[in-house]
User: Fold these one by one.
Assistant:
Number 1:
Amino acid sequence: MARAKFDVIIFGASSFVGAILTRYIAAQYGYDKDLKWAIAGRSERKLQQVRGTLVEALGAQAGDVDILLADANNPEALAELCSRTRVIVSTVGPYALFGEPLVKACVDAGIDYCDLTGEPQWIKRMLDKYESKAKETGARIVHCCGFDSIPSDMGVWHMQQLAKEKFGYPLNKIEMRVKAAKGGMSGGTVASMIQLTKEVMANPSIKKELANPYSMCPPDHGFRVKQPNVTRATFDKASGSWSMPFIMAAINTRVVHRTNALLDKAYGERFEYDEAMLTGRGSKGKRMAKMMTFGLGAFLVGAALKPTRAILEKFVLPKPGQGPSKKEQETGYFDIRFYGYADGNKEVVLKTKVTGDKDPGYGFTGKMLGEAAVCLAKDYHNNGKKRWAKGGIWTPGSIFGEVFVQRLKENANMGFEDLTEEKQAVTDMEDAKLEAQS
């Protein structure tokens, strides 16, 4: 096969996230320099508009950005895209409705692919249908390269590397807590959530699958530990704060467990992991946890019932193509904490945080997804020949290592920090105060 013209093709570049991703790639990597890239989708008019917005980053050169036309349901056009690139990054969702043909095309062509899906039922279908073929062709498929699930998956990976350096062994339990986050919701995310709800209501077996924390692990994973799961307002001992269920835990926890399995149980056979969102301390935090848990439950019930779902879709929820404003994206952020426990120890032995400086689901997802695509295209290729990871369906934490973390730090301003010493300093200060008082 002739050498591909492009390193990366952004498929769905005119979607809400696709446009953000395209602007990030343009600003970070320029055009026709070290990274060769193009934009693709079904509407030439919309892609022309996206290209027009790149002038600020690229100047007049924006007019040279290649536009490639392909419909998500046209196998021949998708195969043509695959013949022209090393990597395709897709933002065309809901993936359960539109994502499979492109995954199949990439697997058949033996090229790499990444996306930002958070749809566990669809990922399970892709695993069942295409993983064996991907291993044969060498295609490396990496789902969940957005806010779900890079902060969770790479955050756990980062903490386990620290544990091995400090203790010589991995932690057997990690708790992830969203300390703070500010951002909006797009119509694409809502459409994915509604699609999952519709599938669950139409096929009750999916509900059983979603209740299995190891549903995305290989069939021979061998994990038997009953996983913790925050389902109500709960006092969180490690943070000293009240907490509530985190809606993205359903996908993030499964990705982390699949990472453990694909890394030959590097976190251990009895590894435990759960996620929650912190609501604050004291009676105010408790009230907030209870109110928000009730509100989340009411929303999920409303989405499950056809009449209320129709009302939500028509009058309340954002439509596909809608999302947070540029100002909301720029002023958004997230601060996620990880608490690690060693085997047999009920006290926290490691504490880390992962942070981002933009709206988590959109402004910062564009950064993470972009760096995942570039990592596949540049860091793990050598003259067009793949090295290191073999073909298959991977998770971010199982395929990307320290080089990816460094990319996120240096290019995306994503923070990965060890707070253990800070925690110990605070503890020592509190002990000194108690001693002085006595």
Number 2:
Amino acid sequence: MKILVFADQKKGKVKKSSFEVLSEAVKLSTESGAEVHAALLGSGVKEQAGVLGHYGAKTVHVVDRPELATYINTPFVTAAKAVIDAVKPRLVLFPTSEGIKDYIPALVQKLDGAGITDCCKIRWTGNGVEIERPLMAAKARSTMESSHSLILLTCRAGSFETKEPNPSLKAEIVEHSVSFPDLKQIFKEVLAANTGKISLDEADVVIAAGRGVRDAEGLKLLEELADVMGAALGSTRAVVESGLVPATLQIGQTGKVINPTLYIGCGVSGAVQHTAGMGNSKVIVAINKDSEAPIFNIADYGLVGDLFKVVPLLIEAVKELKKNA
């Protein structure tokens, strides 16, 4: 039996969510005796394939083609199906990303497989897998089971522990030649906010702005904190709707799901819509002047106070630590 993990990449670099899913695949393999394979699709990604071996993949399957340089549904479905047909796994795992969420339905249909999205827990049963997935903005969980001969799962960010890489572990690299159909789509350009800042998807530290930031001056204060801490800036939906930040920075059920090592919420009340996107953070710090704010119920550390007084002190403290490091 084989488990196949599709790694996600951005601009040729494997994203950390891929290592998380690969680590879970290795854990599942110890319970089932399955062999762990990985797949990497893209353009100019071949040199990144070896790192997947450091996380436990025995074989890495690579489709490195210019047609995969930017996301279009058909080439990725074609490439993914070709790899799955060649490997013949029982279980296929994917990290969750916008592109993967887009092409998974077509892939499941073409393979006549069983597909389940947004999984946060996976267990082997006697003849298949049992999974859990969040519902109602993570206020509840559903349990599902499948004994299908081919099961495809997308994994919710932050649900599984990432193992430490072992550079001494080497994977066999297998390159696949894939014939792509004539495309009826033409890729022209990416329209995206390019702030030059750290991406929310990959950040180890996230500073989140809530309604308490009030205005552009409050946001500027958090941007300074993010800069000195080497952190990414995120926000709640209320801040996006106020026009202070673009929608690409929204964290939550209808925004991005993140799993940083450290999350600092400033003026964030802790509405369920937001916490559904950051609840898997390793350490949660809340700064809010309302002692009854729901964010304190999930925070590891809470500070009741005005962020306009607390954050400047935090900025100076971080600068002092850096100076004396």
Number 3:
Amino acid sequence: MYTVAIPEVKDGMIIGDNVTIGDKVVIKKGTKVDSVVMKQLVAYKLMAINIMEEEDFAETYYGKIKVSRAFRQFEQDYTANLVAYKVAVDSFIYKKVPFRLDDLLQIVKNLVPDDMTGKTLFAYLYLHTPNEEELTYAHGLNVALTCKIFAKWMGLTEKETEELCLCGFLYDVGKFMIPGDILWKPSKLVRMEYDLVKTHAYHGYYLLSHYSRNVSDHILNATLQHHERADGSGYPQGLTGSEMDPYARIMAILDVYEAMTSSRPYRSPKCPYQVIQIFEETGLQQFDVQFIQLFLKHVVDELIGNRVLLNDGSSWEVMMNNANTYSRPVLSRDGEILDLSKNRELYITGII
């Protein structure tokens, strides 16, 4: 709801709260404004009333977010800041202009104020669909924004937070050296294409180390190592967890999560619970245990209270999490309790 001065009230608006004079309700909540109602509002000498917005009619959390003023404003701000990031990247790639790190950090401040929660940011990014030609830029921007939230969860200092956010902006810059039709190919890559894509880690490291020497060793390491895995199964050097820079270990997690939970022109975003299940099945061996457990715990904590859709078509509310199986929380509906950790036939397919 939002407050509207009486002279600004228009026909068709829906009144959000009961209008009372003394103890008497004179106009009920939900009344549609027409000429008769307008005369009443003027006669009662009211200064302003609450008016319902689209989000007030939505039944689900994501439904409310999608039509909210705040999300519309975020999309406008996101578009403007994505342009700024794109200009910085293109200037670096094509003209070798070093990154202005303060300008990149300002983008994070513009889009993720200190009081924004992970729940809000993840909902915004989940609902936002970038243009096809901006996918690589949007991926870097989204990871940088997520870094701000993860840094808060980790309790990092301001300087450490800035360093992590800069890693998010720059770690994947080598992707801009890979042809877009290969990079965003909707079908499975053939071996030669995959080998080409894997070179982006070296490309990024080379470009940053030679043409933007104001970046730190942590950023360079994150660029080179973000596809390494704790069990040694990654690339390009086959490092193990102890050999990886801690910032690279974090970027490895955020890179995968963002890629799978964001919209693409050729597919819808994966449900966070589906991605969490993938992490639970393989991630505990491939990613830093401390970082992945912290990340997953906070992600699922932010999802408590949301309504979810199950594979049988039923909808439930997330009531509480299972500490040992984050992808299978305890759900509730009309007094009924469903523990997904004890019912393996059912699973979450979406957040609604």
